[in-house]
Design brief:
Elements (H helix, E strand, L loop, with lengths): L2 E3 L6 E3 L12 H70 L3 H14 L6 H27 L9 H13 L2 H4 L5 H8 L4 H16 L7 E8 L11 E11 L5 E11 L4 E2 L12 H12 L4 E4 L1 H8 L3
Antiparallel strand pairs: 1-2, 3-4, 3-7, 4-5, 5-6
Amino acid sequence: MAIINCPECGGKVSDLAETCPHCGYKVNSFNQVFAQDSLNSQVSATKSKKKKGKNKIVPIIITMIVLFVVLIAIVVSIMLKTNSQASYNKAVEYENTGDFESAVSMYKKVIFIDPNYKNAQARITEINNIMIEYKEEAESLNSRIASLAGILKYKQSELDSLKDEYDRLPYGAKKMVTNYSILENVYDMPTEYEEWACIVCRVLKNRLKNPDSLKIVSINFALNENEPPSSVQHCVFYLTYTGQNAFGGNVKQSCYVPFITETKKIYMEELFSFDEEGEVTYLLFKYYQNAKSNIIELDPDRIMHLIDLY
């Protein structure tokens, strides 16, 4: 219990009294209103404090979100820049090795990440111009290689020239030479005529004191004019060569060699001598002369290339 002043007359009165003993004012009703006002004030104050607390938290949360987004943007930017540099370096590597197709693909990846990154677009333009420049050369080479198919004899110098021309092309242009496999197959694989010549020259080589000294100067063979090449069963080779003889000196010699195409052997190989003397040589010479219209000349450099490969 507490003593309070009457709100009407100011007299002293208990806060529990119903009315003021001095003037009869209903003190209890006033106390209820006062208590309610006090309670409302406390509730308002509490709400105000909560609101002020919320008002302080919201800016902090917004600031944190903004900082997080900025941080993510920085990380992504660094990652993209690193990826662009890696892709650009790879594109330059492809370009330097002549793999233009892969280089263009990597440059496009760089541009997708960063359209203004270094000179990626300019590099694509330059590569496309190079490919146009090499396209005509590659197509010409492709056509010439295709013409090799089905030929029965080749010149080694021509094959070497085609191979060198192909080797000089950048990697991207080489992909346009779709017939290169023909050149690869021909280069180290003799035709039927070249195979016969290799067999003859290999026997000759093994007869020399120093096999490695053999050098074919010229080589051709005669087919009987009554026997077309497709059905020939024998022929006569005429070759000129240099090599080391039994006395250790280098000699130049020519000879006729009878060859059986069916068995792919020199006729009477064990008894045959690579020289220009004797009756056998004369008979071979006569055969060679009679078949003059069907003499087929082979490339000696080509045969030298194939002797040890085949």
